[in-house]
Design brief:
Layout: E1 7-8, E2 11-12, H1 14-23, E3 30-34, H2 44-52, H3 56-60, E4 64-66, E5 69-73, H4 74-83, H5 87-103, E6 110-112, H6 113-122, E7 126-127, H7 129-146
Parallel strand pairs: 3-7
Antiparallel strand pairs: 1-2, 4-5, 5-6
Helix pairs in contact: 2-6, 4-5
Length: 155
Amino acid sequence: MGYSCFTFGKVDLVLTVEEYTTLLQCPKVQVNKAYSRAASVPTLLKKLMNITRMGEQWIASRIQQKGDSKCVPWKSLRDLVLVHPAVKKRVDVFALGIYGLVIFPKALGHIDEAVSDLFDRLSKGVTPVPAILTETFRSLNACRRAGEGRFIGCA
C-alpha cells in the first residue's frame, strides 16, 4: 500500500484537515486558497494594525528585533486581550497568541512576523489549515525519526 501525502505512519490524516478547519472555526474559508507566502507582504506594523485595530504608535513601540526577524512580545498582546474594547478583536489577538506561542513558536514569549502574516491572511479568505497540518506532520515525523523530542512548528 502506497503512502498518500496526508499519512503519518499508517494513520490517514485527511479527516484531520476537516477537524482542524472546524477547530480553527474557518469553515467559510475558501478551500482552494491555501496559505502560501505572498510576494508582496505588508510590514509587521501594518499587519498588526489590521489584526488589532490599534494605532501605529502603540504597535511601533512594541515591535522588537529577535534574531533575524521582528516580533511582538506576548505580554503586550495579553494586556491588549484584557482591555480591547472590541470583543472580536480580543478573540483575534488571543488567537494570534495561540498561533505564535503554541503552533509556530520561534522566539520564546514572542509572536513572530511570519505568524502575523499567516494570521493576517485569514481575513482575506485564505485557509491556514494545510500549512498547520503540514507543520504538525513534519514535526511529528522528525520526532519519530529521532525517537524523542517535541512538536516544533515553523511559520
